[in-house]
Amino acid sequence: MASRLFSAFRQPAAAAAALGCASAASCTLNKSSQAWCNPGEKKWSLFPRDPDASEKVGKPDPSPPPVTPNDPEQQEYARQSFGIRKEDLIKICSEKGDYEAALEALARNVKHGPFVATSGLELPYLLNAATSLLDKSVAMQLTRMTLDVLTSKFKNRLKEDEKLVVVGGEMGGGVMAAQCCAVAPLTHTDLGNWCDFAYMRKNRKNSGTKQQLEAPSHLTDRDVHGRNTNSMPLRAVWLDDANSSGAELVKNVRLLKAEYNIEIIGAIFLVDRSIDRKQLELAKLHMANPVLKGVDIYALYDLAQVDEMCANSCPC
User: Which of 188, 193, 272, 275 is the most buried (most CB within 10 A)?
Assistant: First the structure.
């Protein structure tokens, strides 16, 4: 079924791209995992990359209309969980014990409430998945699992002598990218031969390079204006701590292509909040956006697994 849905989703569709969403990592859930908590909507726009780009900073373009897919299978694809099945993930883990250790840490590091969502719903805890990236008892396990998935799912997709750029979004994804860069020489010694690492800011800098993309100079300093739409094309995998509606992923897929000529071919998240999309109105169901066709999406866990762990071990 998943293969059939993905095949259907890859079909071209005439739809406008929707940008904008609050951070998925700060969304929350209630005791029955039925909460949607976005701390606020924030619109994003794409800025053309040219020598006068600084003059355009802060002048957003009109937002395109939302995507409202009519294909039921496309909608079903977007609402499914992108969490890798437990047995499949353990199979590709270089250290089998990492799976349970990381899941326990995600549950242990939630922020206990109660909290009140913008909807008025009372929530027992905040997921705040990025916190576990700073937990010294499990940061290595989460990073090693991310590298395992990266290697298993994307290494064989590269052409000869091609390097994949691993891009982390602010802030959780940026921490993931940095930790992968540091840990890979210890655990995945060949990864440096086919990967580079980068960090994507939420907003363009107002000084210096005036770019959003931060990376070693061999990636960003292609000419006097830095990396831009005319630079050599690159392919990349997006990292972030949590996925919800998909708006943040869509925004960065579009932005990296439009401004830096970088094509996102995949994404890896710590947690997929698939419950957030189950009843989400179509106008906000960004995972159904046609811009994501060809983007292979994976998560180490689904929120339901963290929820279950919390119910069993936390005073939620």
Answer: 272
